[in-house]
Specification:
Elements lengths: L1 E9 L3 E3 L3 E11 L7 E8 L7 H22 L11 E7 L3 E8 L2 H10 L8 H11 L7 E8 L10 H9 L3 E7 L7 H7 L4 H4 E4 L5 H13 L3 E10 L3 E6 L6 E6 L2 E9 L5 E11 L5 E4 L1 E7 L12 E5 L3 E3 L31 E13 L5 E10 L3 E10 L8 E13 L10 E10 L7 E3 L6 E3 L1
Parallel strand pairs: 2-17, 4-5, 4-7, 7-8, 8-9, 18-22
Antiparallel strand pairs: 1-3, 3-14, 5-6, 10-13, 10-16, 11-14, 12-13, 15-17, 19-22, 20-21, 20-23, 24-25
Helix pairs in contact: 1-2, 1-7, 3-4
Amino acid sequence: MGVTSSNKLTNVSETGCKGNFKVTLALSASPDIINSPTDIVLILDKSGSMAGVPFESLKEGARTFIDIIEKSTDGQQDGQIGAGSRIGIVGFSSTATIESPLTTSVADLKNSLDLMVAGGATNHQAAFQTAFDMMDLNNGKAKVMVMFTDGKTTEGPPAEPTTAMIRSKGILIYCIGLSGTGGIEITMLESWASQPSASYVSIAPDPADLELIFAELAANISRPGATGIVIKELLEDDFELTGTYIPSKGTAEITGKRSLEWKIDKLGTDSNESATLQFGVRHTGKTGGTKFFNKSVNYSDNEGNAVIFPNPTIDVKCDVVTVAEKCPKKRAVTLSSCEDFVTVDAGKVRLQSQGRILQLDLTLTNVCPFKEVVMAVVITEKPDNIKRGMKVFTIPPHTNSKCSDVKVKNVVFILPDDCTDMCRTRKFDVQVLAHYASTDYGCYLDDEEDGQSQLQ
């Protein structure tokens, strides 16, 4: 069955400017149809809107599908589907009918297709339920449904509860839609199909494309898992990689600031199998908004599986984060297993009184772009209003397109303590003053000597 699903998702929906987030790549594969016998039910729309060329194209596509599965199971087209696999057909309009039970006979399947006639409404729920009732959940075989439709549900209840139940039983659902009649809803197909929908939903613009889509689907279902997998990820210019976690299978290597490569020797060759890789991403651009962080993902394997990963977005909130003070310098110390003491030269350290550390974080709201801000923080101890310190900072201008909040972090004060009473409760007032340091203001002053005005 080859690669059965591929997905990409983030651990958060939004991040800050220069913020970090985590991305997960996921891949699933199953053994080939020879080593993993499969029951396949084709669920074919025969409602009135399919009459004429669309219905004939659908039948031809289904015949091609049957031929490819037949050949892949025993290497020849001898009229029998081999290796324990079977195909059945359900036709549906206002109700659903078993056109052919699960069988290995190619002739019986094609004769059933020939006898199908289009007409009536569209009852998707009945179609899925009838296909499910055909399957033996205890026979140990893999199970696949292929739904084809050209329109919306016009009769019967919604199909979503039924398809959710079917997927919970481990049955894969592929959905093919014909959009030429204008009635198909892609979101409807995505709600029925296995996930991710990019791997299990196909849309045919016109009837001529149906045979090709059915052929590609049959080829994917009949392939062996996947071997020699190579996935190359490249990020957009506004993002960079911060590292990778150890993947559940294979090896991952960062090949550049924005690129990585994930290799897997084999996946799903003996049983249904999944693999995941997580890696860290940081926003490095100057602007926010809803952004695609993925520039490209190139997939290849020895079997030629066609794999497309979703392209999620991240909402970047660019309220500028300013770190007002750096943390104290760290000095590494090593104590070997045979030493019971160590002497370390910590270098020159600024003398500070014994006391407590007060660290402040605050937000300057609605700061206009390209405006430098001056900020002062004053600490006063109560109840005697003793001034314990003042710090003044220049906050660099941000480059957002509109006024934004500016976060100021790590404003640190050292507060001396009385050595005789370190446990006493202390109370402080914190005052913050802030204003723009730059301005576009100017005024004209008359020069009394020459009578001309000058901009000051």
